[in-house]
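If you are new to this repository, start here. Below is one unmodified record pulled from the training split, so you can see the exact layout before writing a loader.
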Amino acid sequence: MGPVRPDGTHGAFHDLMTSSLQRPRWWPRVLGFGLGLGVAAVVLAAGSVPGGDGEARAHLTMSAHASGELAFSTQAPFLSAADLAPRTSTPVSGTLSVRNQTGRRLAIRLRALPSLPDLDDMLEVTVTAGGQPVFNGRLKALRGWTPRSFALDSGRSVPLEVRAWLPADAGDGYQGRVVDAPIEFRARPETS
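And here is the target side for that same chain:
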């Protein structure tokens, strides 16, 4: 290494090493840029979204809102549709079994509690209980209690079917909307 200088350095070798380390070099910059560009290309290629038909559709989920008088076949959503768009094809549907767990015959009304009003004026909904119509109209109207009730004897069950669709004349505004619409039930003892 050579003799030690008064400043603590080791002469010519130290001068050679420190001067080469302090000189800017172009190749590390080019290498770093190239590596960064390669990583960016890989990330962009891996994160690309697969092609679709270009239409962002509406998503609807319906579930039963808990009730003390009634038991339901599931607490999970009984209707879930991720591809609602205006069309004339078959509506999406879901069925839920509703059971009277009281000792009396009940008159039952229901309403929807949508999380957002986004589909209120567009979404058509029909509800039947045991094949009998309970509601037919827009989601907005189902925010209120159904005008018709259905009767359910003590200990008996009935299938409740909900059908929903966006009619061909729904227009725009449904795209990308995600609405959760739990169904709430109001059960009262039936009077003769």
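Two things worth knowing about this chain: The chain has a mean pLDDT of 82. The radius of gyration is 34 Å.
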